[in-house]
Amino acid sequence: MASRFPRSVWAAILLAFVVVGSLRNAAAIPAFARKYGLPCSACHEAWPKLNSFGQTFKDTGYQLMNDRDEPIWQNPSYWPVSMRITPHWHYESAGRQTVDSIPNDPTSPPIEKTINTSGFDLTGIDILTGGTLAKNISFLLVPSISSADGTVGFESANVRLDNIHGSPWLNLKFGKFELDGPVSEKRIMALSGVGGAYQLYHFVPGGDVNDFTFGENQLGVELMGHSLDDHTRYALSMVSSTNGNLGLVGGRSYDGYIHVSQGFMAGKLGLQRVGAYFFSGFRPTFFLTTTVGGVSTPLPGTGQGNRSFYRAGAYASIYLGRFDVTGVYQRASDNVFLANGVAANNGGGLPIGAQGVRWDTGTIEAHYTYSPKLFFLTRYELARITRQSVAGFAPSDLGDADVITVGYRYYPFMHSRAGLAWHQEFATELTKHTSDTGLDQRTSSYFMGFDFAF
Amino acid sequence: MPTIHKTTFLSMLLLSLGLGVAVAQNGGASSGFPTPKNDFTASEQRGHGLYLRYCVGCHGVLGDGEGENAPYIDPRPRNFILATFRCRSTSTGTLPTDQDLENSLERGLVNSNMPSWRPTTPYDRKDLVAYIKTFSPRWKTEKPGTPIEIPAEPEVTPERVKAGEALFQKLECWKCHGVEGRGNGPSADTLTDDQNRPIQAFNFHDGTRFKCGSTDRDLYKIFMTGLDGSPMPSFADNVKPDEAWDLVFYLRTLQPMKTKAKLIAKQLGLKPINPAGAPAQPPANPENK
Question: Which CATH superfamily is domain A37-453 in?
């Protein structure tokens, strides 16, 4: 038995017992109360997932609207900052990877092999600052430090004018922000390499050069509104076609987004919601270049030959007491030049049978909130390419993907100053015919660690 | 064993082990859905879980208003053991109705840390009220008071606004609220609540909402029932219902909102009252809401 299971696995089992077993309820000894003094569970079903109270708080510009929202009401020592990081141990398995049959021997024939790796690791650090600059003027700033190279990026940086003319229907956000999508990837409950991102937002067929990623925060403006009870919501956004990258490195085009949803109370079951969204944009297919010494270099910011794409979807979020399930269906389409990675000024470069690519994704994510301290999650996602980028290119299901994620989070204490979760998760993905020999590939992640924010 | 099966098996094993320990840890009173008590109704039991999710940080596990955040909150959270509630439809000294408490949860209490819990379901709020009532023995020995009768709101007229102004002076509202209603009357600095904690008089010039609502009926109710636990008494024995409406109309002229009463006050050229012998007013305190 010992030979079949690596030592690290047994060490992980032991660790799971030791760390989870050592958790006890903690009494809070506050240095000072945080802004509103509410426990995490007031706004989060289980953090970071918002409940309806938290969603309303967010939609009103991080305000409770009880005339205690302005910074002047805060203790001068209060600084609206939190940090979040997740020390963890993870195991990654990537199936049918092409490697040299003899390492360091390029003449050796390539073979396909499953690559397994595991070890202790860190996520990047999110520094989350947000709140109000004045009554009805709120902000969010999230510098993020990469765990890989220590560079700092700006995940979010925006100012929002709330309740313009005293109306909750008019709120204007300016800067870098997360699109108001059907599910929030910034509040995703899964953390593993495979489960930690939505296929819904990230799936792109092979060869497609469109860099748009729904889950990435975008740069632009958002007009958002909601009813007083937050049941009816809309969001209109216009963002630069840069996928949130700074420095105007792409073209000069803009993308548009609209999202409408309606919630309704279903007796004791809770708030149900249905909605639909549509994103349409452009991406350049080539850049102006300059040639020095025979080498052509694309000039940043000179993107040309814009070609279109869209994402359109509908969803429902159903609550049955402590159990909730969200289902999202999305259709996506990219122009033929984007799909085949060919510059639009080089029509002859398209392969015979080239066509725009189209795919559908389906996401079903279910949660069971046993209590504010114990939260279960599972998700199934599929992506189906309904029109390949080259007609007749067999097989028709090339690149289709299925992902299953299961896990839970345990919060040993619940108060207003810090949060800690013990997170365990397993996720596995199967993609069709994507190995170099045309076979299916499976990628799996196991993740366990402490997710904490303070 | 093929790699995928081994990976899946090991991952599931680890998940199960960790989950088992977490569930064991999560049982009983630490769960947020604590061990049921025999004398709790189902509604109270659900309310207990909701209370721990939303309320415990300020109001405390014992409901005594001494939650972990209480020292930093002004005004202090309500002590449910005393069962003294300001926002009621019932006479002073009586317990509020369940609907009164549910309304407070839904509306929130302006100028305090108590937010509106409108995003929760009405059922949640009922359960929370059921649980909050378990903190005080008063709920076992007393019944809630009968809601006061509020006559239909009459038409606002110049005569009524002037009559309200006279009442404001006669009832000495200005002693706490100030001659301009800015919460800076001569007694304002001495006010304390029933637990001897300093409390501020309401500044009518700052905001359109009151602690117990925002409508004319809410304002009527406030001075006919009083705000129990605060220095604001009930005037039910001193003011006739019709006169109470006059006072409502006058107080509306003090607020930063466009009302018919305000327009009438402007036409009348209404000036702040000048009670004989009233000392000079200190400047308004901007934090005095």
Answer: Porin (2.40.160.10)
Q: Across the A/B interface, how many CB contacts are shorter than 8 Å?
A: 180
A370 interface with B at CB cutoff 8 Å: yes
Shortest Cα distance, chain B CAs vs residue A222, angstroms: 23
Q: What is the CATH number of domain B39-141?
A: 1.10.760.10
User: Global pTM?
Assistant: 0.86
- pLDDT at position B23 is 62
- Please list every residue in chain B whose beta carbon sits closer than 8 Å to the beta carbon of residue A66: 108-116
What pLDDT was estimated at residue B2?
A: 57
Model confidence pLDDT, tens digit, residues A265-292: 988 888 999 999 999 999 999 999 999 9
Separation in Å, CA of B115 to nearest CA in chain A = 6
Q: Which residue among A66, A406, A412 places its CB closest to the CB of B110? A: A66
Q: Kindly tell me the number of DSSP H helices and DSSP E strands found in chain B.
A: 11, 0
DSSP state of B95: B
Residue A152 to chain B, least CA–CA distance (Å): 33
Nearest 10 degrees: Cα torsion A110, A115, A117, A121? 80
Domain extents in chain B: 39-141, 158-268
Answer yes or no: same fold for B39-141 and B158-268: yes
Task: Please give the pLDDT value at position A414.
Answer: 80
Q: Smallest Cα–Cα separation from B278: which of B202, B182, B169?
A: B169
Q: B158-268 adopts what CATH topology?
A: Cytochrome Bc1 Complex; Chain D, domain 2 (1.10.760)
Tell me which residues of chain A, numbers 432 to 451, contact chain B at a CB-CB cutoff of 8 Å: 442, 444, 446, 448
Domain boundaries, chain A: 37-453
* Nearest-neighbour CA in chain B from A302: distance (Å): 46
Of A74 and A27, more confident: A74
Higher pLDDT, A188 or B3: A188
Q: Which residue has the higher pLDDT, B21 or A29?
A: B21
- Mean pLDDT throughout A86-90? 95
Helix axes B216-225, B241-254, angle to 10 degrees: 120
> Nearest C-alpha of chain B: how many angstroms from A117?
11
Interchain CB distance below 8 Å, A16 and B109:
no
Partners of A276 in the beta sheet?
A260, A314
Residue pair A275/A261 in contact by the 8 Å Cβ criterion: yes
Q: Cβ of A41 under 8 Å from any chain B Cβ? A: yes
| Helical (H) or strand (E) element with B232 | none
pLDDT tens-digit map of A155-202 = 999 999 999 999 999 999 999 999 999 999 999 999 999 999 999 999
As a whole number, mean pLDDT of residues A117-146 equals 90
DSSP secondary structure of A138-175: EEEEEEEE-TTT--EEEEEEEEEE-SGGG-TT-EEEEE
Distance CA B29, CA B25 (A): 10
Helix H or strand E encompassing A180? none
Contact B209 A412 (CB under 8 A): no
ipTM over 0.85: no
Nearest-by-Cβ selection for B14 from A13, A38, A370:
A13
- Under 8 Å between Cβ of B86 and B233: no
Q: Does A167 touch chain B (CB under 8 A)?
A: no
